[in-house]
Every structure is written in structure tokens, then in C-alpha cells.
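Justification of computing resources. Each target in the renewal requires a structure prediction run like the one illustrated here; the chain below, 118 residues long, is used simply to show the kind of job we budget for.
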Amino acid sequence: MELYAVRIFVRSWPEACAFYGETLGLEARFRNDEIGWAEYSVGAPCLGIERVEPGDAEGEALVGRLVGISLQVMDIEATYRDLSAKGVAFEAPPEEQPWGGKLAHFKDPDGNVLTLLG
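Resulting C-alpha cells:
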């Protein structure tokens, strides 16, 4: 077995696709607006962006939370500056961690929290 995708649930479909594709600069390897599913390359597995339909109470509970995804970048300070300039909402600048790395948490248009790892 191998990991295929990590799913992120969104309400704002066009905004989410623009955020992951244009703002973060991830390559779209699949997108179907009719079914509300898109895949963005992040190495071997992908980030799967899944639209939650209006009135889907179970799906609504999955939007706007810490998704537990860490996206590793070569230069976290430069990536932080670049994404901040594009309007990405960070909780705080990159912070040194006790184990030696740096982390910075940011939100997508629906409030899902992802982590930059450097």
C-alpha cells in the first residue's frame, strides 16, 4: 500500500482551487468542477480538494479545522514572505521548534489550517 491523497474539505470551490493552484503554486493533476474534486501534486501523493455540498451537515463538520498536513519547503522564510505577499493568512511567522526545524501555520479560504515545515 501507499498513500494516494490527503483530502481537504472546502465550501468555496473556485476560491479553494485558485488558492491551491495559483496562490500556493501547486500543479493541478486533476480537476472536475461537476463532482467537486481536484488533485494537486505535492510529491508522490496529492492533496485532494473535495467540495462539501450545501446542507451536508456531516461534511460541514470537516471544513475549517487543522488538517494535520505539513508541506516541507527548502526555504521557509522565503516561502513565508512570498505567500504572505499573496495574501495567505498565517497565524504567526515561522518559529524555531525544540527539535531544530521551523513551522508556520496558515489558512486556506475556508479556514483549513495547514503547516509549512522548514
